[in-house]
Specification:
single chain; about 140 residues; alpha+beta; globular
Length: about 140
């Protein structure tokens, strides 16, 4: 099996995180995040630490790091230790944060109000009203 480049691994980790696949995630000071992620394809555990992406996915944020662990329990222990160290130094803003997850450009269709197809919408027609107008 071919080893993935660092950029490929980071891209995969961001993809998994944006899909909500991070098992745990914490927001740190300075708009930084740490996430515990298990890659479903390889079963390996990862810790991803990154800042906020201002380029909407065009570039990996500066200062992004990841650590790879051969087993999930090792990754969990390392994440707990990193989180405890960050907490003791006052860097944890919120544990289990969902802030900034998902890219608004690729998160799917826009959800609208249940009653958005109202009478004022010219593209929405009432079939009964059409029949009445034809019968006249």
């Amino acid at each position: 099996m071919q080893e993935k480049s660092e950029e490929q691994v980071l891209s995969r980790l961001f993809e998994l995180e944006n899909e909500g696949q991070a098992e745990r995630r914490a927001e740190l000071t300075g708009q930084r995040f740490i996430s515990l992620i298990q890659d479903p394809d390889s079963g390996r555990g990862f810790i991803l630490q990154h800042g906020v992406d201002e380029t909407e996915g065009a570039e990996i944020p500066a200062g992004t790091e990841f650590w790879e662990y051969p087993t999930w329990p090792e990754a969990e222990r390392a994440f707990d230790q990193l989180l405890a160290e960050s907490n003791s130094s006052g860097e944890v803003v919120e544990d289990d944060s969902t802030e900034g997850i998902g890219d608004f450009e690729t998160a799917g269709a826009e959800v609208r109000d249940l009653y958005s197809a109202s009478d004022e919408d010219e593209l929405v027609t009432d079939p009964e009203k059409i029949e009445t107008e034809v019968d006249s």
